[in-house]
Amino acid sequence: MTQLSQSVTLEFDNDVALIRIDNPPVNALSHHVRQGLLDGMTQAENSDATAIVVICEGRTFIAGADITEFSGPPKPPSLQEAQDAMENCSKPVIAAVHGTALGGGLEVALCAHYRVGVSESKYGLPEVKLGLLPGAGGTQRLPRVTGAAQALQMMTSGDPISAGDALECGLIDEIVEDLESGAVAFARRAVAEGLPLLRIRDRDDKLTGTNSSLFDDFRASIARKTRGFLAPEYNIRCVEAAVNLEFDEGLKREQELFKDLMKGTQSKAQQYYFFAERAALKIPGLPKETKPIEVNRVGILGAGTMGGGIAMNFANVGIPVTIVEQNEEALKRGLGVVRSNYERTASRGGISSDDVETRMGLINGSTDMGGFGDCDLIIEAVFENMDLKKSIFEQLDEICKPGAVLASNTSALDINEIASATSRPESVIGMHFFSPANVMKMLEVVRGDATSDEAIVTAMGIGRTIGKTPVLCGVCHGFVGNRMLFMRGIEAEKMILEGAAPSRIDQVLFDFGLPMGPFAMSDLAGLDIGWDENTSSGSTVRELLCESGRRGQKNGQGYYIYDPETRAATPDPEVEQIIKAFGERQGVEQREISDQEILERCLYPMINEGAKILAEGIAIRGSDVDVVWINGYGWPMYTGGPMFWADTVGLAEVADRINHYGSTLGGEHWSISPLIEEIVAQGGSLSAYTN
Ligand code: 3HC
Ligand code: NAI
């Protein structure tokens, strides 16, 4: 065995050379891997071996370029040198894939003459998720193997395909049982049978006859999902180049577009997010040996909007659920909504009708909390009322087994106060799901003063099991996400009285990249959430709208009027009149407000509040705040989240504007966070701030 570089060795299995890569954790293409691969190819080609296998140690084949190298100057050799050595080798080169061949990893495999993989292996070009495109020839080679339509799908979604699908579309040549012996056997067969040294770059059989309308149809089909992102369009242009240009020309085009993306802010933001999401799972100070409790059955209290959705998350991964309501009628209604959600997914082909029954079979409805006795985790999702929640936790304390984690889905209430109703505050934690709970990936895990490490790792771990992105935070009103949202709400409310129509404010935020603005969001959630007919006194626009019978989308009228068929929203002049009259009664002066002012007054108080949240230690890191806003509220990922975005705008500039609004408009939410001032004075960034 020859050690070629710190991560690559060359060895021989008689007549077959094995270039073995071992660069934990995911065999990323760091410079020493590229060097080892290049040297290995040269030495193997010059050896007595008749064929060469490229294979990886550890949990996966090469998972792509080393993203940590993107921020520095390029280190030689280039990946292309190693790829050329493979593609032009005079002996058959076989890539042996296990785990995931992703990005640059798949692009390396595409330069082998043949590819084999184990049945669990996966193949993908996820660069689009990093705001990039496969810049190592992948955009030109993949379409030549799969055809343009499948390449478009894979490159713009970034999602990998299975070994079975890869075999079917010709991306791999064989599924092997044992990776190394299967690959070596394939290599020997290639030599024995004189299989041609296939270079994908020379093929065009899958591209001829590509329908010219494919690209625009495809653009239209992903337009909504990819609004604002640059990388999907750039990926499409590369596939167009593969269809319309010679290979080398296409490669040039790929390089130009790759460089363009690489120097832009979107890819920086998306790469930052890649690491932010992973960092959020790391909890400083937690002893390594802390083990989660095993969650074999989950109890959920309340089968309303949230409880039903939360139950679905567990049933979807095969964990049985006991869901308890206050009476049969509410239970029936709640379970009916769950069933119809599943049936809708089945009617669209997302799951089978058997799956619907299996999952419904895992959800056991009851009106008796006694059933929680054998649950390992209980999540309370009843009305947002402290007295009610405390009385429920008192009962849970009596019913639940010792060690069970008792969680509340409260959106803002004090977890410590809820915990005080029990004799075991160490078992009490917040698990704040976002609506619709079966869809939204965000999960704020709220640690109370007494919450145990075990309860924390259990909540974070089970969150991952059900496919959520958990972020740990501390107790404060509204936690990370809603506390920042409240600040935006204050300014949005004020601006409508000053003369900016709700639809205009919503439009500015939509154009910024958010899925909707505050008024469309209120209509969607229901204007009457927390509204009480008996105490309503016309003291806010929202109360006035509720008093005039407007409930939001659910009754077709809120800030907007909704088409009963299409649910399309139209601004309502009557609402604008109500607002105007209210503003006049309040003595608010009407004036012209620019789009920039709308944006600043909505987003800067959020940044300010985010900084206060960080300074108070409620969030662990600036990047955690960004993960919450991207996953919980659809903040555009290509800006990196509110903290990263503020850094991009320039924190000094943001601070100036906060101070400006503080002195002209006033209000606690405009009093500048000392942390922002500190960072501006000392240099640094909000997004990199860590407690
Ligand atoms: N570069 C550097 N570090 C990477 C990395 C990469 N490409 N991929 C993963 N890592 C790191 C992670 O940050 C993490 O580090 P940590 O333990 O310090 O937090 C560690 O490897 C393990 O990663 P995961 O926790 O994500 O492990 P999983 O087992 O859950 O997932 C994976 C493994 C599916 C490979 C996943 O890590 C992944 O999707 N990685 C990114 C793949 C990717 O985007 N590749 C394309 C890169 S761009 C490219 O290739 C450009 C080329 O076209 C020129
Ligand atoms: P909801 O009103 O839709 O559902 C609450 C359910 O709890 C009702 O079905 C009610 O019958 C049931 N319930 C009330 N008292 C009960 C009791 N003693 N025993 C059993 N069931 C009881 O409310 P929603 O929207 O599901 O909210 C639930 C909790 O989730 C609240 O704390 C809320 O703040 C929080 N939340 C709500 C979000 C949303 O967007 N709706 C988002 C995130 C959290």
Give a written overview of the molecule.
By secondary structure, the protein is of the alpha/beta class. It has four domains: 2-263, 2-enoyl-CoA Hydratase, Chain A, domain 1 (Alpha-Beta Complex), CATH 3.90.226; 298-479, Rossmann fold (3-Layer(aba) Sandwich); 500-585, N-(1-d-carboxylethyl)-l-norvaline Dehydrogenase, domain 2; 595-682, N-(1-d-carboxylethyl)-l-norvaline Dehydrogenase, domain 2 (Orthogonal Bundle). 46% of the residues lie in helices and 13% in strands. An eight-stranded mixed beta sheet has the order 13-12-11-14-15-16-17-18, with helices on both faces. It has a seven-stranded mixed beta sheet with strand order 1-2-3-4-5-7-10. It is globular, with a radius of gyration of 28 Å. It binds 3-hydroxybutanoyl-coenzyme A and 1,4-dihydronicotinamide adenine dinucleotide. 1,4-dihydronicotinamide adenine dinucleotide binds at residues 301-307, 324-326, 330, 334, 381-384, 392, 409-411, 432-435, 525.
What is shown here, in short?
This protein is an alpha/beta fold and 691 residues long.
Provide the descriptors you would attach to this structure in a database record.
binds 1,4-dihydronicotinamide adenine dinucleotide, N-(1-d-carboxylethyl)-l-norvaline Dehydrogenase, domain 2, 13% strand, globular, alpha/beta, 691 residues, 2-enoyl-CoA Hydratase, Chain A, domain 1, eight-stranded mixed sheet, 27 helices, binds 3-hydroxybutanoyl-coenzyme A, Rossmann fold, seven-stranded mixed sheet, single chain, 4 domains
